[in-house]
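Q: Predict the bound structure with magnesium ion.
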Amino acid sequence: MIIHMPIEQHPYDIQIGFDTLSLLKDVLIKHQQKKAFILTDETVHELYKDKVDKLLDEFDIHYVVVKAGETSKSIEIFELVSNTLIEQGIKRDNILITLGGGVIGDLGGFVASTLYRGIAYIQIPTTLLAMVDSSIGGKTGINTALGKNLIGAFHHPLAVIIDLNFLNTLPNHEYKNGMAEIIKAGFIGDQALLEKLEAQDIQTEDMITRAILVKKTVVIKDPYDHHERMFLNFGHTFGHAFENKTNYTVSHGFAVAEGMIIAIRIGIKLGLTERTLLKRIHNLLERYDLGLLKPNPNHLIEQTDQDKKNLKGTLNMVLLEGVGQPKIVAITKEDLYGCFNRKTT
Ligand code: NAD
Ligand code: MG
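A: Predicted complex:
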């Protein structure tokens, strides 16, 4: 399956399937590359080095390998990766390959956006979350001591290659992180995806393609994140608050799962959201073994006060009028009361 991204001046294709990794070789040849510069993390390197070495045996391969996990999205590692690539001889017309999860895609994409004022890069996402979310849409970035993704750039890749074989080694917990974003995609933009997930009757490729198409639709309308792109934040206002208050011991997908429940409850309280959606989200999260971690309501309200989207006492949140009908609504603190309990009706 190929999804075309018609981004102005930077159109590119997303290739999805089994064994699509072999397309990497064709892209490098097409762009007259003799060297392959690959940014990856230790875990992915250990698992896939032999496969990549074999595939690219006619290229001069240079690896930059960083520690697995969010700590690698730092200014120090950004500098280290940039310097290592320069020492390895990367030039303006070379291509950086990011092979890994969202951390590698975000870090490598940001390095590519700044190295020599911008070089091309190819995203090869290896987690479910990176396949359906972080590798799509051209956002790159790193964290600072003050928060996540505070420094970054929009930088679209030359190509995205999604090889479903990578999912074979992905730990279950990481798989669930991606599932939360897929469920989110269903709620904001694809009724059929939601129904197939509910029936547990969907092939992985179809599921990933549908989730990407939801993100594509939003990104194409608003590539630089001024309005519609905020729809992708469904479940994320309180998801982020939950992650933050638990010092990121609760992982993203599980936090977003809770955040979606809360957003639906708020919508119901405001008379905006159909009541049936609450049962549907609960059933889905149960089916995919996600969430129900009972965040502390006071913590969430407190944290939301500091949320960057909090403007003059009201909070812009994504709520749902129905499946596929997200809406940005300014809500007040009073709107939140009573929306954090666990009742499902
Ligand atoms: P991650 O990159 O840390 O990967 C999770 C873990 O899985 C890591 O330990 C990694 O080594 C391991 N792993 C990766 N692929 C594997 C495989 N095939 N087999 C076995 N293990 C594998 O995390 P993530 O969840 O992929 O991404 C999270 C990051 O993505 C966050 O930093 C977040 O801010 C970012 N993000 C960015 C965007 C965007 O639009 N740019 C969107 C959503 C999330
Ligand atoms: Mg997310």
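A: Residues 133, 181, 236, 252, 256 surround magnesium ion (ligand 2) (CB under 6 Å).
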